[in-house]
Design brief:
With 327 residues, the chain is an alpha+beta fold. The chain contains 10 helices and 4 strands; from the N terminus they run ααααααααβαββαβ. The protein is elongated and about 75 Å long.
């Protein structure tokens, strides 16, 4: 008679069940390891972002403080913005520029909170504190520029514009009027930050007339702010600027080959037809640098004198032969 083995009857676990449990356990362990690895990578990436933000804040604050304190501080004009108001109070009452700038920023932060957002305000608060420290603690030990007021206005704009552009690149701001400018920029993306800032700053610049007692204060303030706006736009938008050639012709393939030979630029061909004549035409698109625009023009004119050629400026160009990374 066959013995009834306790372990072979009621309590035997099927092999397939054991495999299933082992596989599920292994899957759980793998998922936990993946989550842990992802968490570590995200934390490492976040630390890297913070480090770069801090470095940009320091570099931008040095340039910004140089523009405000070193060049504009002793030149008898207000360059605009909250810092311009702080310079006016510094001239009248001797108040520290960085501290006054921080105090002026408090109501503007409250006004712009909903429109700008929490992330930008936190980053900007860090930037404002760092720039204020440079203005009130470090740069008073550096001699002010005492040369030509015109040179002071120009270089004040160059340094301030470069510093603010570095802030903007990292999604931050020097505060004050920048909050209002970025708020308007979010609502009207087609508008330039530099132009928006220039328009708002005009009000502050005009205050320099009665304070400093001469119309030159307004003119130098306008010059400084204008240079700053140009520098901001060139750094944010103009470094990758180029030209787009639009060519309408019957000899598309020939012109494309000629451009490739002379300029070494690619050409995109779009089949089209005349709206009035109905005749077939090729529309060629060629992105090139401003220096290469003349070579493209020569290639088109040598190949087809009847071609319709247009050039339009582009703020930035990404892709092969231009910027490769979109940030």
């Amino acid at each position: 008679m066959k013995k009834n083995n306790f372990f072979e009857t009621e309590h035997t676990i099927p092999v397939s069940g054991i495999k299933r449990e082992v596989m599920q356990s292994s899957r759980c362990v793998c998922e936990m390891n993946d989550k842990k690895t992802l968490f570590n990578l995200n934390r490492k990436f976040a630390h890297k972002i913070l480090i770069w933000d801090f470095l940009y804040d320091i570099a931008g604050s040095i340039l910004y403080a140089a523009g405000i304190y070193t060049f504009a501080g002793n030149a008898g004009f207000a360059p605009g913005g909250v810092s311009g108001l702080a310079l006016i109070l510094n001239y009248l009452l001797g108040l520290p520029v960085g501290t006054v700038t921080l105090l002026f920023n408090i109501p503007l932060v409250v006004i712009s909170y909903k429109a700008v957002g929490r992330t930008l305000l936190i980053k900007s608060a860090k930037t404002m504190v760092i720039s204020s420290l440079f203005l009130d603690v470090i740069f008073p030990y550096i001699p002010m520029y005492t040369g030509s007021r015109l040179m002071a206005a120009i270089y004040s704009g160059v340094f301030m514009g470069t510093g603010m552009a570095l802030f903007y690149i990292r999604g931050s701001s020097s505060g004050g009027i920048d909050f209002l400018a970025l708020t308007i920029k979010k609502k009207k993306p087609h508008m330039s930050i530099g132009v928006i800032t220039l328009l708002i700053d005009l009000v502050v610049i005009l205050l320099g007339w009665p304070v400093f007692g001469n119309i030159d204060a307004v003119l130098y303030g306008v010059a400084s702010t204008g240079v700053s706006a140009i520098v901001i736009d060139k750094i944010l938008y103009g470094m990758g600027a180029g030209t787009l050639a639009i060519i309408i012709t019957e000899r598309g393939s020939v012109i494309a080959a000629k451009i490739g030979e002379n300029v070494r630029r690619g050409v995109t061909t779009i089949p089209a037809s005349g709206g009035y004549t109905g005749l077939h035409r090729d529309v060629l698109l060629c992105a090139c640098s401003k220096a290469e625009a003349y070579l493209v023009k020569s290639a088109v004119q040598e190949t087809d004198e009847q071609a319709f050629l247009m050039f339009t400026e582009t703020s930035e160009v990404f892709g092969e032969g231009f910027k490769r990374e979109i940030k």
